[in-house]
């Protein structure tokens, strides 16, 4: 009995150790995004609250927290309130299997990569439920777009993951990272890396694929009826998801916590630092895309997903397995 | 026991591969021209598959795919019959699709995949293979039923068939899982070996599973008490599709039923005999009495089909090699009669409109004496009047039943054929003694002509040359009773 | 051990409860959501049973793809639950009677059952030291290769069928040709013309 309690306490402590910093990271991701985009557009970004606007995210959070929660009269209350919670929780539970360094992981399960795929495939529920429960046409349209988009791109993501896992020969995330000791998979699988980045932009509903919240045609899409904390949960969920997806990209293609070259100045820096630096680099691509690219039209988005990414990644699976088989590297 | 790799499944592999290739051909060609090309190639494929079946069918059983697949004389025979049925019905579908503006290349593809499913079904040697092949066979059928997608009746038929088919699959799967749970194996061979050994009794749970499997199979056969879908689906589906339904899948399902009862459960004749007898009696009675009030020829053919399944099941009920032999002969002859009858139905047109009412046969003999003669031959044969083919089919199954001591069943069967003769003969009466209200269209498309000639010839001349069918059916039946 | 047991009862309890809710919820969308909850908890049960691969696939395939589409259809259909339930009370007595008879029959059948009636052929457990994914893959691509490939063909047929029934050729419509757009350059679209003053083009 005592053992059980101790185990439970350790697990809770581990969860807190990840979720706490993660929430802080989410808050400062929004700040970083505004700063980066500001710089790209020759502006300064947030500057008023705190030095260099550093307290801006805290102020935003406090503001949302203090606002009144409005539930539309025709809304389905339970589903309406559950939707943002689901989005937020899903953005957090994926971190259970993310290894920050060898052994630095809450749950080192054998099917880690499938777990991540499962979690990301669930993300669509928050959006669909929100859109339906709001009892609003804009919200419902946004939800429809979002789920069609997420399902379409998930298939491409699944195929890309297959490439990585047959190369690594394991579904365990730690082993996938360790398999990249000789060469990061971004090098042999470079085209897949590009497709993966584009697909995770679509999967997280980010620019240039942010049609579900396309403000010029749908007001803001599925979350149009949300306010205060419920909205904040969506917002946090979206950014937490971005960070999670970046972490997955780092693990699959950028060698996780491994230093770029295993020699003196690089391997002095501990693994988790490398991991976080790489996540930041991928996050930068998210910001960069948002500042640079115009929004896709919906049919073009679907065309890209089904007619370009899907066949291409399928072809790459055939190619990868062919090469691995030919050189007896399976 | 000899095993082999891929080779025994050559006909089915051919069908599937050609389906894949034709899918590409159809996608890249223009609509009508592409549909015609794909249909022609599909017909060629089916013909090649038929001959390939004859070539690959061995004397002794060959196993493949880790014994999920078996090719013996029984499977070879039934496959040959089924492929012929698919070939014939695809051929008579061509003019129909042209006239009804339904020329889309998917039709031939669906026939190919469904036929491949039938072939694999007849060769299934485990419940897993059985289930997967069954789904491959039926999934295209649902789509084909709804092929005339702009009409309410056709879509309704497709939906009805799909929902009830899914229910049947569910029951079948439930039965399979019970059998697996209580016996620990899904392999037909293993089941046969275990129970052939001696006085092992079938576990009661597996018996319940057997009942569920029988229910699922009865659904696919369209036998009482799971026949309700047949009249509606037959009526709603496009006539060419109805012809296909009445011919190929029904025969494949019958072959499967025979194999399931004779092979894995062959040692438990006493356990399943009552089920089969009940189903046969119900089907014969419903087929005979249900058809009397029908005014739509497709509905009438549906009831006729239910009745014929009942007669064929009389042979299975006997549970002997002779009984199975009777079933095989019956189904083969049934194929020719049905395809021929549907060729007649597809030929009947007035000002380009297809005719579906029984009344529309009136006065056919005055305008097209040859067509009317063919139709009369099919009707007499379906009624089981000597010396036509249908009589011999009934004769063999009833003889087998008498042999096995099921005299009452045989007598009941004869009585029901007398009742059933009424509505077949009514059509003959309409054709020969009534006047047509309006003239029929004169042209008979070449595809229909060819099929009509072949089917009429087989039906009428079976008594003269019974050898090929009887001989191969004998070999096929003995394969199940080594 | 006790923890695992407690988790099992929790998951199994929620599964059954949500199963009941699927058929009893008034709102069809709620029914689907409860079904998803049931899937989710079943995945949890799979994990408890040591079948982690199946658990994940259950979520990815059923919850992540199938149920979403299902949810969509249900959301977009305007199902009138009141009308659907109209005949319910009328048929309830007959249905209940049939159910009761079936139940009694089942008891009669299984009453004679010996639980110790072990299956004749033993099932094969996962070999030691092999992960579940590997073990599944090993039989899927050897022993059950036949069924696996056929399942693939069934899916292909399903695609063909769905397209056959729904794709409509809308005639001549303007389509976007992406490669043409991308390969367009200045020389193809702009021409420099010297325009004489006062003459116009």
Largest sheet: spatial strand order of chain B = 1-2-3
Give the amount of beta strand of chain B, in percent.
under 5%
Q: What gross morphology of chain B would you assign?
A: globular
**Portion of residues within helices of chain A:** 55-70%
Mean pLDDT of chain B: 89
- Portion of residues in beta strands of chain A equals under 5%
How large is the count of helical segments of chain B?
Answer: 19
H/E topology pattern of chain A:
HHHHHHHHHHHH
Biggest chain pair contact, residues each?
B-C, 41 and 29 residues
The biggest beta sheet of chain B reads: 3 strands, mixed
From the helix content, strand content and strand pairing of chain A, which structural class follows?
Answer: mainly alpha
Mean residue pLDDT of chain A: 87
CA-based gyration radius of chain B = 21 Å
Number of contiguous helices of chain A: 12
* Radius of gyration of chain A, CA atoms, in whole angstroms: 20 Å
Task: List the defining traits of the structure above.
heterotrimer, A: 330 residues, 12 helices, 69% helix, globular, B: 482 residues, mainly alpha, 5 strands
Task: Give a short summary of the structure.
Chain A has 330 residues and is mostly helical. Chain A contains twelve helices and no strands. Chain A has one domain (67-326).
Task: Please provide a written account of the structure.
The complex is a heterotrimer of chains A (330), B (482) and C (201). Chain A has twelve helices and no strands. Chain A is mainly α. Chain A has one domain. In chain A, 45% of the residues are buried. By secondary structure, chain B is mostly helical. In chain B, 75% of the residues lie in helices and 3% in strands. In chain B, the strands form two sheets. A three-stranded mixed sheet of chain B has the order 1-2-3. A two-stranded antiparallel sheet of chain B has the order 4-5. In chain B, helix 3 packs antiparallel against helix 10, helix 9 packs across helix 12 (297-318) and helix 13 packs antiparallel against helix 16. The longest helix of chain B has 32 residues, at 152-183. Chain B starts with a strand and ends with a helix. Chain C has helices at 2-24, 28-48, 52-76, 81-84, 88-111, 132-140, 145-166, 178-182, 186-189. The longest helix of chain C has 25 residues, at 52-76. The model of chain C has no long low-confidence stretch (mean pLDDT 81). Chain B binds chain C through residues 16, 20, 23, 31, 65-66, 68-69, 104, 106, 109-110, 113, 116, 120, 128-129, 132-133, 135-136, 139-140, 142-143, 146-147, 149, 158, 181-185, 190, 194, 200, 203-205, 208, and chain C through 109-110, 112-113, 117, 119-123, 142-147, 150-151, 153-154, 156-158, 160-161, 163-165, 169.
